[in-house]
């Protein structure tokens, strides 16, 4: 059960309207790594969780918090649009430079949402549920969550740097701090899971069934050998089950593909090594020949 209270988790009030910045802020609302994505990702991971209840509870804690973040950003976008477009249009009529800047405003903020936020990114692309990851494997999911929080925090920091509005910066500083916690949270959960299972996902698949000759080989498939200097090219593997091997000149290990000619009714290009079929009229046409 979810219950809404009127107070926001944290303040979301700009110092002044800025419809152009409202368009930018849409990215961390409805973009690939925006708050709608992590909200839906965590909630579905939690609802589908079949593991230890402490993980289910933790995932739903953060998933529910992300609902609050969606509300904060949507509220901030709406307030950045206060007075637009009438007041800004009046100002633009006095100053051509202002008019040029306002060309960057999202017209859908006026036409579609009536000066409100939309579930889209900064260029108007609709939010997509394919952005989310909820596989049922907690280690795989938590690593995806860490990536989502890393990308999300990066974008919020970039938005922080692109405004001087103290009210906007205040809200973003709160979101940045929560993303710091959430990255730490997922790293802690990943470390805990790795102590009870193998680091490679899925840990339940017998490794003897994979082609173990290449399980720990780093293959140099680009010009230069600078990659040989990395931690991934020598020493103990991260799962501590083997050692990395650097392969400077990997060779092809497969066959040369030879595909059979498609049946005539598929109408692919004819086999150039065979004589062309005779012309047929409709009465004598047989697609199996």
UniProtKB/TrEMBL annotation:
<dbReference type="Pfam" id="PF05067">
    <property type="entry name" value="Mn_catalase"/>
</dbReference>
<dbReference type="InterPro" id="IPR039377">
    <property type="entry name" value="Mn_catalase_dom"/>
</dbReference>
<dbReference type="InterPro" id="IPR007760">
    <property type="entry name" value="Mn_catalase"/>
</dbReference>
<dbReference type="InterPro" id="IPR012347">
    <property type="entry name" value="Ferritin-like"/>
</dbReference>
<feature type="region of interest" description="Disordered">
    <location>
        <begin position="259"/>
        <end position="289"/>
    </location>
</feature>
<comment type="similarity">
    <text>Belongs to the manganese catalase family.</text>
</comment>
<dbReference type="InterPro" id="IPR027407">
    <property type="entry name" value="Mn_catalase_C"/>
</dbReference>
<dbReference type="InterPro" id="IPR009078">
    <property type="entry name" value="Ferritin-like_SF"/>
</dbReference>
<protein>
    <submittedName>
        <fullName>Manganese catalase family protein</fullName>
    </submittedName>
</protein>
